[in-house]
What does this fold into?
Amino acid sequence: MPKRTSTESSSTPKSGETRPPAPWHDELPKNKIWCLCYKALCMIAVSKSSVDHWRYLVERPVKKEWTAHKEMVVNRFENMNVTAGLVLTTSAVFVSTDPPFAPLMPYASHGSYILQVCAFVAALISLMTGTSVLIIYDTCYANDLLLHTLMQSRWRRICCLILMAYPSLALAVSTLTLMTGKFVSTFRFRVVKLDTL
It folds into this structure.
């Protein structure tokens, strides 16, 4: 006689039994590309390859662990906002001033200027989304109902992870764009110098 599996026995609860807990829905996607994208999103958003630590925090609601985790995430976003502010002011200085010696580094040229404006906008977006995520996370994360609602569907969790990862992504785009703008202006100076020789 074949044995009943645990899924068969748990799918139909008998009278007097409690219902099984809601599924966690944090199983990794079966497709390798989607699985890699999901792990990368988790790494950017929460610095872990999955969000299993949320399940651990919900199932073991210890006050010290909640506080330590919340402080770690809040400190991370505060540091990111400081960095985004520095990139924002640096790009604003380059956008709003003329180069002191234009033949040496003409960062007011068209290509470099467009890249600097893009860096300014991306840093501003990073700062704004980082501040909003910090405010939302700081006030809402103390309540475990937030994590219970995220447990209910993968799409809610993915949207939350995208929102948490957006400041990091915008800051990376801003920094790379600003560096590319400086490289373009330096490269243009070298091309002009070679043409004059």
User: Anything to note?
Assistant: The longest helix spans residues 154-196. The chain is about 75% helix and 0% strand. The helical segments are 6-11, 32-46, 52-59, 63-96, 110-140, 144-151, 154-196. The CA atoms of residues 61 and 176 lie 40 Å apart.
